[in-house]
Amino acid sequence: MKKQQTYFILFFVMVAWGFNVTATKMLVENFMPVTMTALRIFVSGITVFLILFSIKKVRMLTKKEFPYVFFGGLFNVVAHQYFLSTGLTQTTATNGGLILGLGPLLTAILAVIFWEMF
Q1: Terminus-to-terminus CA distance in the chain, angstroms?
Q2: Residue 56 — left, alpha, or beta (φ > 0 → left; ψ -120 to 50 → alpha)?
Q3: What one-character-per-residue DSSP string does 1-23 give?
Q4: Among 114, 77, 83, which residue's Cα sits nearest to residue 99?
Q5: What is the pLDDT of residue 9?
Q6: What DSSP line would sit under 70-99, residue for residue?
Q7: Is 25 in contact with 88 (CB distance < 8 Å)?
Q8: How far is it, in rounded angstroms, from Cα 74 to Cα 20?
Q9: For the residues 46-62, what does the mean pLDDT come to?
Q10: How far apart are CA 105 and CA 103, in angstroms?
């Protein structure tokens, strides 16, 4: 893959990611957050499995891997999308984007605080 193609793909992903909160805000004005979350996760899951199947990377999880994938998916995907959708019913897309954007900074600050405490 050429360098220009890589940068184009990265640019497209950033633009799509940037529209995520705005699109979610528009969707929660017309659909219930839980319905929208379920549909988004279902479509994403099917897409991931189709991609993995096409590159022959699908395999069964081991018993040790299953809890990590289950709880990671539950909290990092389902809970995040549900609370984002629910929160956007109460505020603007701008506020939602700012809150999401400040997540890494808040994580770093809290890490320093907790590191000093323990």
Answers
A1: 47
A2: left
A3: --HHHHHHHHHHHHHHHHHHHHH
A4: 83
A5: 94
A6: HHHHIIIIIIHHHHHHHHHTTS-HHHHHHH
A7: yes
A8: 20
A9: 95
A10: 5
The answer to whether the beta carbons of residues 84 and 23 sit under 8 Å apart is no
For 2-44, write each residue's pLDDT tens digit: 999 999 999 999 999 889 999 999 999 999 999 999 999 999 9
pLDDT band at residue 118 under the 50/70/90 scheme = confident
Q: In this predicted model, what pLDDT tens digit does every residue of 19-28 receive, in sequence order?
A: 999 999 999 9
Chain Cα centroid distance, residue 36: 14
Q: What's the token pair of residue 54?
A: 């096409």
Using pLDDT thresholds of 50, 70 and 90, give the confidence band for residue 1.
confident
What the block records as the tokens of 101 is 């954007």
- Which two tokens mark 34? 């839980």
The dihedral through the CA atoms of 67, 20, 18, 25 has a sign that is negative
Q: Which of 86, 87, 105 lies closest to 96, judged by CA?
A: 87
